Please model this.
Amino acid sequence: MDDRIILHIDLDCFYCQVEHRRLGIPREVPLAVQQWDGLIAVNYPAREQGVTRHMRTTEALAICPNISLVHVQTIGDGDSLDGPVDKVRLTQKACLERYRLANAEILDVLHTEVPNSRIEKASIDEVYIDVTDLVDLEMPKFEADRPGRDSEGQPLFSWGSVVYGTGSLDPMNVIEKRLSYGAMIASRLRGAIQTKTGFSSSAGISVNKLLAKIGSAKNKPNQQTLIRPRVVQELMSELPLRKLRLLGGKFGEELASLCKGYIEDSGRELVVADVHSIPYNALVAKFGTEKSSWVHDMIQGRDSEDVKEREKQKSMLAAKSFAASSDITVIERWISILAAELAPRMKSDYETYNRRPKTLGVHFRQQPKKAGQFSSDRTRQSPMPRMPPQMPCKKILTGAAMEIFKTRCASEAMPCVRLALSASDFVECPNESKAITRFLTQVKKKAISSCDDNTAQNTSVQLDSKVEEKQDGISCPLLDSVNVEEQEKLLREASMLHRLEKSKANITQKNQQVSKRIKTGGIQKFFQPK
Model:
């Protein structure tokens, strides 16, 4: 039996909440976030009036005339949304950076509140948290102070949670008692998010990721649901099959189709429990042993997958689809726009995780040669051009990406209908790179103050005469083709840093020799006149 305590926290209409806070729009006002002429997020007041996601803006306004429509941030010519959306779409691309930054705020709150718990970023608006160890730590302390009571002396267990299923929590059941403390932690975390960011959230509390995610969606918005292992059969008998995690898409459709052949009323909506009607050998014949075993566990509420700390992205991608073009100036304009989105994301990632990407990727899609055909993306990669990680440069990225496109993509890409730039293969930056200028200043001051005037003068002459030299290992295949001032400045700084560090080491060695002479009494002889 799984004795873990897993939380799933899901932000309520996250994009809408970000816009409510940013623009100061009251929460009771119907609001939707649009991307071009379609809705990608709808708040609850708008939903109550019949507005749904993926609806066109004209349709939403017809249903709910008082709705506030907020467009996502865009990047492009003028960065303005003035004019018809269909025209603006030809020169700009959507950018979700303001929602990524809001997500970072939430993660900061969670890490502050539960610093030793594993947190998995599942998407931009949801996280899993394994609070098993925290429950083991807090439960004995709390029980000693108020056995069976909450902080206000009321009977323990629910902590404002909706307890799913028949019956109430059993205080004599060990796992249900532990789940109640998980509910206490979930309530505390949701309160911290609300207080520090202004965002409401819903939560699910259970013994694994599968059940916790089902719980968070059960009583939205701004509530939490606790699911006990003993009510799983009851839960699966009413949960629509399409709502079970990872059973969407083509695989879910194939499973539903197979299931309908084994139930009497094939016209009704399928629930998870209906899958039990499929003989196991039929599952294996259709999907294979491994996938069938996984489905068999899922429909019984079993999920052994761990909460994994994976907040750090393995790669970043900025992409744009557009009307087919073979004009290299059009390609360069879109690549410049993509670089304008990617550069600040690289900077933010460096500030958060102190790392930089080693690889720059250019992804392209050619227009299908015949109607009805599908063309897939292709990728060409090269080392990321060298630039300060704290100041990624749009101009450098654009130049490097264009060099890749012209030399390695153009012959296969035209006419092009989609472009993307990616940054990947992240590596940790040395501490010196965070503030190279400040570090240089400190090293130089120490070097000059530790030596006599002649040594300092000689060091300065050496640096001035050789500062133009490039160090081995700094060069990049793209440096010669991307001739910009930022790269030249970085090479100068790197060369200077290397020589200052070498000078400092020599001075330290000399000082140690002098100190040794003093300790052995040789200093008197050293100062006697010849």
Notes: The chain is about 45% helix and 15% strand.
